[in-house]
Amino acid sequence: MYPFPGFLVLYSISTVLHLGQVVKYRLWWMIPTATFAGILDILGWSARLWSSWNLKLLTPYEMQIVGTIIAPTPLVAANFIILGRVITQIGPQYSRLTPKLYTIVFCCFDIICLIVQAVGGASAAHVANTKTSASMGVNIMLGGIAAQL
């Protein structure tokens, strides 16, 4: 019995729809944000499916971790770009920060959180290869995820 690849199908549909929006509405900033996030999610969930078929392989597990941990970051960046555009439409006087500053501040913070997650993930992956405890790397990665929330 093989696992149902539901998330893989859903992320594939979502990515194709986002790519369609990019072309139709000429929202080119969505390629490195929402579309890239969808591609990373597709890769992550594909690796998860592969990992469920081959439990002893480390490569699909590492690919799954990288894909599913990194993918939300460009998607969140797209949300902050959209937030800046909404604030521009409603009126910057109703916002504490300027629309451009929202994008800059939150995207920079997302990049910092992504670096923390990468350091934790690399540490956990390195220790997993040496068969020792990966708890410190996992805790660092979880700290980066929590800060990103």
Q: What does this protein structure show overall?
A:
- This protein has 149 residues and is an all-alpha fold.
- Helices cover 80% and strands 0% of the residues.
- The protein is built from 6 helices and no strands.
- The protein is flat.
- The protein starts with 5 loop residues before the first helix and ends with a helix.
- 23% of the residues are buried.
The N- and C-terminal alpha carbons lie at a distance of 36 Å
Number of helices: 6
Measured as a percent range, the helix fraction is over 70%
Structural class: mainly alpha
Principal-axis shape equals flat
**Low-confidence segments:** none
Number of strands: 0
The radius of gyration is 18 Å
Question: How much strand?
Answer: under 5%
Average pLDDT reading: 88
SSE pattern, N- to C-terminal: HHHHHH
Largest sheet: none
Quick structural summary:
By secondary structure, the protein is mainly alpha-helical. The chain has helices spanning 6-25, 31-53, 59-70, 72-90, 99-129, 135-148.
